[in-house]
Task: inverse folding
C-alpha cells in the first residue's frame, strides 16, 4: 500500500499511474499555498484597513468582513491556478503531452464576392 495523504492506495493502482505521488504532492502544495494566501491576505488587509480607519472610521465587523471576503477570493484564485498546473502535470505524466490551454482561433467567414443564393434558390444582391 502506498500512502496518499490520509488514504492508502493499492500498489497495483500506484504502479499503473507512476505520476500519482507527484500529482498528490503538487495538489497538497496547491492547497497549502491557497491556505497561506487566505491567512496572509486576511492579515494584510486587516492591517491596511486599521490604518485607513483613522481617516474613514467604520465598524470592526465591516473591517473583518471585507478582509475575509477579499482574501477568500484571492485564495480561490491562487488555488485554482495552482490546481490547473497540477492537472497539466498529471496529463504530462500520463500522456507525455502538455495540454494546449490557448483559446481556439476563430476564423472569420468569407463573404461571397458575387450575388449569393438563398437555400430556396433566390438570388440576393
Result:
Amino acid at each position: 500500500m502506498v500512502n496518499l495523504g490520509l488514504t492508502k492506495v493499492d500498489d497495483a493502482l500506484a504502479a499503473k499511474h507512476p505520476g500519482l505521488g507527484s500529482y498528490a504532492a503538487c495538489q497538497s502544495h496547491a492547497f497549502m499555498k491557497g491556505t497561506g494566501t487566505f491567512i496572509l491576505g486576511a492579515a494584510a488587509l486587516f492591517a491596511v484597513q486599521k490604518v485607513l480607519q483613522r481617516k474613514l472610521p467604520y465598524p470592526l465587523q465591516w473591517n473583518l468582513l471585507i478582509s475575509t471576503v477579499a482574501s477568500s477570493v484571492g485564495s480561490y484564485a491562487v488555488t485554482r491556478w495552482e490546481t490547473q498546473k497540477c492537472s497539466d502535470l498529471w496529463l504530462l505524466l500520463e500522456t507525455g503531452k502538455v495540454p494546449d490551454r490557448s483559446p481556439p482561433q476563430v476564423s472569420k467567414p468569407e463573404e461571397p464576392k458575387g450575388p449569393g443564393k438563398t437555400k430556396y434558390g433566390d438570388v440576393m444582391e
